[in-house]
Design a protein that fits this description.
By secondary structure, this protein is of the alpha+beta class. The chain has one domain. Helices cover 12% and strands 22% of the residues. It is built from one helix and three strands. The protein has a three-stranded antiparallel beta sheet, with no helix packed on it. Strand 1 and strand 2 form a beta hairpin. The termini are far apart.
């Protein structure tokens, strides 16, 4: 799973970690411990529910529903 972390000095970045890990990491630039950013369902649903322009997808956008 991909998790977001925030460094006080360098901002947010993503790390791929196992789901059952402690979800702790250090900044890749300064090696300081970072805070995890909680954003539920962002990576699971974002690509399937929203269009690239940010608007919500409709039934006609999905090929499987076109018939």
């Amino acid at each position: 799973m991909i998790y977001q972390f925030r460094c006080k000095e360098h901002g947010e970045f993503e790390v791929n970690q196992p789901m059952l890990s402690e979800h702790k990491t250090d900044c890749p630039e300064c090696s300081e411990p970072c805070q995890r950013v909680y954003s539920p369902l962002k990576h699971i649903w974002a690509d399937s529910v929203f269009r690239p322009d940010g608007s919500r997808r409709e039934d006609k956008d999905y090929a499987i529903l076109k018939g």
